[in-house]
Q: What sequence folds into this?
C-alpha cells in the first residue's frame, strides 16, 4: 500500500512539473514561431460581422465605466486596415464570416491583436460555434507568474502561453487549429460560423482572474484603466473555409437589403428579404443592443446619429448589416 501511494505521488509530481516546465512557440522572427503575417497567402477571407460586449476599463473600479475605443466594424477586413475595437476587462466579441470555417490541414484561422512589441501582450480566450449558441473553447495553457502581478505596461514571455489570442505583436496572427476539437459533439468542425474572443482579465487577484484549461490564473498587463483597455481585436483571418456549405447562406445574404442606408434621423428603415424575417436586433458601435423589432420596418426617431449594426434573423440565416444614421 505504501509503495502504491509513493508511486502515485511521484507520478503526480512528474506530471505537474512536466506541464509547468514545457515552453511554447516563441515570438515573431524566432525559430519555431507560429506567428502568421497578415499578408500571408494562407489567408482567404476575413471577418464580415461582429457583435461586441464591452468590459470595464478596470473591473476593480467600475466607476471608470466601460472600454470604448473603436467599434465593431473595426474587426472587419484584413489586419491593420481600419483600427481595432477594445474589449475591456472580460469583454467579448463574436465574429462571423462570409463562409463557414472548416477543419483543414494545419491551422484554420488566426486572431490579430495590436501589441506594439513582442512582450506587451494582452491576451484572450478563443471559442468557436457552429450555430451561434453552443460554443467550445480551445484548451489554453498559461505558465505566467500567478503571484506577482504583471503591471499595466509589463512584459509577458510568449513561450509561456499557448492557445491564447494576443500571443504575437501587431500584424501577426495567433493561429488556431480546429483539429484540436475533434470529437466534441457540440460543434461541426466543417461549419464553424462564429468565433468568440473573450478578454483575459490579467489580474492574479482571484476575485477577477481568468483561468486557463489547467485552472491556472492567466497574468497579463493589468490594470489597463483607459478607453482602449483590455484585448484590442484587430482582425480574424480565415485559412480554411467551406464554400460549399456557405454558398446557400451567401446567396440568401445577397437577397437581404436595407433602405435607405444611410438614413436621416427620424426616417423609417425598411428591411427586404426573400426569406421570412423573424426579428431584427439593433446594436450601437459599443456592441450594446439598443432596439429590436419583429417587423421589417424600423423608425429611427429615437436614434442618435452614428453607426449601428442590424442583426437580421431570418428563417434560414442570420446576417449583420451596417447602418448609418445621419
A:
Amino acid at each position: 500500500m505504501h509503495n502504491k501511494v509513493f508511486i502515485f505521488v511521484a507520478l503526480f509530481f512528474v506530471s505537474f512539473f512536466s506541464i509547468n516546465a514545457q515552453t511554447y512557440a516563441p515570438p515573431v522572427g524566432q525559430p519555431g514561431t507560429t506567428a502568421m503575417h497578415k499578408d500571408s497567402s494562407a489567408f482567404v477571407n476575413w471577418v464580415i460581422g461582429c457583435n461586441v460586449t464591452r468590459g470595464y476599463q478596470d473591473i476593480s473600479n467600475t466607476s471608470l465605466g466601460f472600454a470604448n475605443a473603436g467599434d465593431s466594424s473595426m474587426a472587419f477586413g484584413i489586419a491593420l486596415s481600419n483600427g481595432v475595437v477594445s474589449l475591456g476587462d472580460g469583454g467579448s466579441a463574436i465574429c462571423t464570416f462570409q463562409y463557414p470555417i472548416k477543419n483543414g490541414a494545419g491551422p484554420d484561422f488566426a486572431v490579430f491583436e495590436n501589441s506594439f512589441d513582442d512582450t506587451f501582450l494582452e491576451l484572450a480566450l478563443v471559442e468557436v460555434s457552429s450555430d451561434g449558441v453552443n460554443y467550445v473553447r480551445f484548451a489554453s495553457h498559461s505558465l505566467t507568474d500567478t503571484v506577482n502581478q504583471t503591471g499595466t505596461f509589463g512584459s509577458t514571455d510568449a513561450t509561456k502561453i499557448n492557445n491564447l489570442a494576443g500571443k504575437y505583436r501587431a500584424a501577426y496572427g495567433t493561429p488556431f487549429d480546429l483539429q484540436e476539437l475533434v470529437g466534441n459533439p457540440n460543434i461541426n468542425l466543417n461549419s464553424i460560423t462564429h468565433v468568440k474572443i473573450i478578454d483575459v482579465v490579467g489580474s492574479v487577484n482571484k476575485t477577477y482572474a481568468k483561468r486557463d484549461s489547467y485552472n491556472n490564473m492567466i497574468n497579463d498587463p493589468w490594470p489597463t484603466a483607459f478607453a482602449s483597455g483590455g484585448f484590442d481585436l484587430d482582425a480574424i483571418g480565415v485559412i480554411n473555409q467551406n464554400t460549399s456549405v456557405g454558398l446557400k447562406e451567401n446567396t440568401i445574404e445577397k437577397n437581404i437589403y436595407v433602405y435607405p442606408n444611410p438614413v436621416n434621423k427620424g426616417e423609417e428603415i425598411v428591411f427586404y428579404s426573400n426569406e421570412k424575417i423573424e426579428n431584427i436586433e439593433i446594436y450601437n458601435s459599443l456592441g450594446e443592443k439598443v432596439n429590436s423589432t419583429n417587423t421589417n420596418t424600423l423608425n429611427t426617431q429615437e436614434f442618435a446619429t452614428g453607426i449601428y449594426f442590424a442583426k437580421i434573423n431570418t428563417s434560414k440565416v442570420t446576417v449583420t448589416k451596417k447602418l448609418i444614421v445621419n
